[in-house]
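User: Some background: our group keeps a shared notebook of sequences we're curious about, and every so often someone picks one and asks for a predicted structure to add to the entry. Today it's my turn. The entry only has the sequence so far, pasted here. Could you supply the structure so I can complete it?
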Amino acid sequence: MKFTKEVVLDRPIETVRVITSDPAHLHQWQPDLVSITQHSETPGATGATATLKYRKFTLEETVLSATADERISRYRTTGMVHTITNRYSAIDDQHTLLVCDNEFELSGLLKLGRRVLEKSLREQVERNVENFKAFIDAG
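Assistant: Of course. Here's the predicted structure to add to the notebook entry:
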């Protein structure tokens, strides 16, 4: 399953870059995130890995690419791989466009419940993006 979510952030791109470069901010827009264990010396950099523990599941993150304006990360858990590409571009001096491309690959038992799960996964991503926008916009 693939889909894209776009949102306009009410902050300059430089501010967005600073916030998104620090994984410690994830708790601000992902309320179910319990802890992050970094396995790399430079969290958030290309090649960095981490374990993200949520209330109901754990994800293993690998940063595939990280530049000022694009970040590609892969998240793995049993039966699912989620690849996210976040691209940021300045609209003007005070607004930034976030384009969030998502690809989910399901296997095993999760693949059997694909129809129900796809809707739930899309809704979760949309909630996270809207929470991210609220956090960024609040400054």
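Suggested note for the entry: The radius of gyration is 15 Å. The first helix runs from residue 13 to 20.
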